[in-house]
């Protein structure tokens, strides 16, 4: 039954994005179906947003349809199958009015125009970095939860015969994460992925402990994910140089050898040391920031995270989180940033209370709040706070208050961290870790969420609406068609224009 439902969702979406012939690529992340489109003008945005299973849409290099965690992974295969079936049937039906060449030309034109207008080299670079690390998140989450469970069992002195096995399961991925980063980096930058992984594997090889560089012995893992990223990028450039100059007859022998040899030597006698110093600096800076300016740092980070997401700049934090997890076992930044979602929840509850006669917005909030409590913020952002304007700002105020609360305890010596990146809200509880007991860590994080909820609610309730907004948005939706249309369009019409960047909360 579930499979049929997922196919029904895919069937409803496909014609609204221009049909199978208009879809050039299909992919998904944790919450979104990401589509490459030949002709953006064929998409019927309003009808798409009106679908019950669609939480919102975001435009970027790809057209992104927010379906939520779990669901998107089930809908995507059904959507891909429908696209393939549609493409196979299209020549016989002759339904599409233009040729494939014409569609490709239109798509290239639209893509070029959009990139020229919105893309900057810095943002494009950050997206590439995100593309390297985002595929690793499921493994980080799974291993992080297992590590937390193992720690609990050890503290309770339960199942002593099982805990060593759980420790191995939880730690195996992190011990080799540099290899996965190298593989994904080479793939993202246009090289041979396995060569990127091979060069990055040098960093975690135990034998590097016998090598001296910059007057000191190297240690396995030195440089971590940053070193792996740099090594793989170097490998891509060496490989491309070889492809250009090495004769085809000996390419299969020479290119891999030269790529691994040159990149490996530079990694051992340069990158491992430099990246190790940078990684150490990141950990030291993060700890210093929270130890000395915790409340203020939490206020700024919690309050500005959602605007950073809107600008796409949050992607720069991904390698920092991963480096902290690799170094310390947890990232102290994520629980603070997660407070932004708490502000959104408090804001949404206040909107629900203030707009008592707007059934459309209240229905959206009722359906989106459970996901919001679990840390999935897109439905509340794109369906409620951002389109309304002022509530988005007051939601950020709630996030700032929650961040200041968690940051204050860091100043007092109680650090709260997460063993993985990705989840937030209540979903982060199984991943919590810190320098004190699990009970203290969970209590501080829970207190931060509560502060975010309360301040987000109060700020939105008292300052989130002008008098005119309340008049316009609180109209009786049963009084006439125009009022109903206005209520329905209010939370959805501005979805794409103000954002332009993907948001992962």
UniProtKB/TrEMBL annotation:
The chain crosses the membrane at residues 132-156, 162-183, 190-209, 221-238, 250-275, 295-318, 330-352, 364-385, 392-412, 442-463. The active site is at 29 (phosphocysteine intermediate). CDD domains: PTS_IIB_glc. GO terms for molecular function: kinase activity; protein-N(PI)-phosphohistidine-sugar phosphotransferase activity; protein-phosphocysteine-N-acetylmuramate phosphotransferase system transporter activity. One of its GO terms (cellular component) is plasma membrane. It holds the Pfam family PTS_EIIC. InterPro entries: Glu_permease_IIB, PTrfase_EIIB_Cys, PTS_EIIC, PTS_EIIC_1, PTS_IIB_1, PTS_Sugar-Specific_Components. Keywords: Cell membrane, Kinase, Membrane, Phosphotransferase system, Sugar transport, Transferase, Transmembrane, Transmembrane helix, Transport. Residues 7-89 form the PTS EIIB type-1 domain. GO terms for biological process: phosphoenolpyruvate-dependent sugar phosphotransferase system. Residues 482-494 have a biased composition (Low complexity). Residues 482-505 are annotated as: Disordered. Its main location: membrane. Residues 127-479 form the PTS EIIC type-1 domain. It is found in: Cell membrane. It is a multi-pass membrane protein. The keyword Transmembrane helix applies. This is PTS transporter subunit EIIC. It comes from Streptomyces xanthii. The lineage of its organism: Bacteria, Bacillati, Actinomycetota, Actinomycetes, Kitasatosporales.
